[in-house]
Amino acid sequence: MEVVLALHGFGAGVPGVREAVEGFRASGGRLVVWEAPGEWVFGAVLNGAVARASGSLVAKMDDDDWYGPDHLSDLVWARRYSGADLVGTAAEYFYLEPLSLTVRWDTFSECFAEHVSGACLLTDRTLLEEVGGFRPLPVNEDAALLEGARAAGAAVYRAHGLGHVIRRAGRGHTWLERMGFFLRDRGTQWRGWRPSALLESDPGDAPPGEAGGPAGAPERGTPSGQSTSD
After folding, report:
1. What is the pLDDT of residues 36-62, one digit of tens each?
2. What digits encode the pLDDT tens for the residues 133-164?
3. Neighbouring C-alpha atoms within 13 Å toward the C-beta of 39
4. Residue from 47, 74, 60 nearest 123 by CA
């Protein structure tokens, strides 16, 4: 695996970034650090990162979400057993930071679909070249890529979303939805940090002030609005 870290609007010397880069390289990881021009839109930044990657398979990951240790291998396996041209995960788990709430949507996965999470795309360089890469847009660049792939006849497969948690803060997202959008009656809610057990989260991964266990572990809390009895 090779990581291409695209820094957009700040440099590699920023505290926190510098230590993370040094630690990753000290562990033996392959890392390319690229400081993208601040005036570039996000879609152009992603294309610049793809151009600096040396592999034939390319995955997109967001810096403000959580990913399990098997996330990438699960996507590669999904590509193999489905035969799809582009794979991604279901948008399933969300952590709503201002509310200290974990939400799991009821959604279909392990199926061919029109939409997958924009934070978890994997495809090959050939398809990216055929569709012209990401669109040079400030937002919705992933949705535009999916649209272009489908228009080109590419098959899109949606794998499970158990190894990924999407972070939602009060602002600063390119997926422009209000907090209430994620609270619609379409799943389960837990107070605090409650990822899937497949995320293999440890206390150091939890958001500040949170130490919750995996969702579905009643000894560490119960779903919001529900109760248990012995």
Report:
1. 999 999 999 999 999 999 999 999 999
2. 999 988 889 999 999 999 999 999 999 999 99
3. 0
4. 60
As a whole number of angstroms, the distance between CA 88 and CA 97 comes to: 24
Structure tokens at 129: 């070249």
202: pLDDT strictly greater than 90: no
Give residue 210's pLDDT.
Answer: 82
Q: What is the pTM of this model?
A: 0.86
HEC string of the chain?
Answer: CEEEEEEECCCCCCCCHHHHHHHHHHCCCEEEEEEECCCCCHHHHHHHHHHCCCCCEEEEECCCCEECCCHHHHHHHHHHHHCCCEEEECCCEEEEHHHCEEEEECCCCCEECCCCCCCEEEEEHHHHHHHCCCCCCCCCHHHHHHHHHHHCCCCEEEECCCCEEEEECCCCCCCCCCHHHHHCCCEEEEECCCCCHHHCCCHHHCCCCCCCCCCCCHHHCCECCCCCCC
In the β-sheet with 164-168, what is the strand arrangement from edge to edge? 66-67, 164-168, 93-96, 101-105, 187-191
Which of left, alpha, beta for 28 (phi over 0: left; psi -120 to 50: alpha)?
Answer: left
